[in-house]
Amino acid sequence: MGTKAKLQALPRQESGKSVTRKMRAAGRIPAVVYGHGEDTRMLSVDAHELELLFSKVHWENTIVELAIEGERAPVRTLVREVQSHAFKPLVVHVDFQQIHAGEMVHVSVPIRLHGNAPGLKEGGVMMQTETDLSIRCTPDNIPEYLEVDVSGLYIGDSVHLRDITMPEGVEAEIDADRTICTVTPPTVAAVSEPTDEEPADEDAEPEVIGRETEEEE
Fold this sequence. Notes:
By secondary structure, the protein is mainly β. 11% of the residues lie in helices and 39% in strands.
């Protein structure tokens, strides 16, 4: 099933641009956790730990257990929103949603193609039109990814969502006719040939861009 991760968090009381600016300067990222009718709690997480976590997992379908300082048990959450800096590769804020076992959640999981399609040996090109799939399931049934077998695809063949056997307890949230991938015919660039009206001059000297002519010299 899906990936699980742990992350340390500290409660915070203050908010505002100046506070969050100082927090980021100290290497921490402001965050919130909400859900199940409880008040939204303001937190902060270590920027390096968060970056390391996001580099290892697909955060949209990873259950993150938040160990909040001062609380006896970790809080099971899903990352619902990640706000990034406008022009720097930095996370500036994270929203976590608290979840409980047995409840249905909506997540996005990556689609991975598996196998060698015979159509590729014929010169075809594999086109994957869906790289992620929105699904509905309980937290404990979240798959890490969905694997699609393409070993039977020849040129012109496709895999649609209806062709995929979904894991038990997992429901797709897009139309069953949606194309996941297809093997397209090879594309050959057209080569222009001289016409009868414009015969090719085999003895013509090729033009060199940027070379001055004798008259220009």
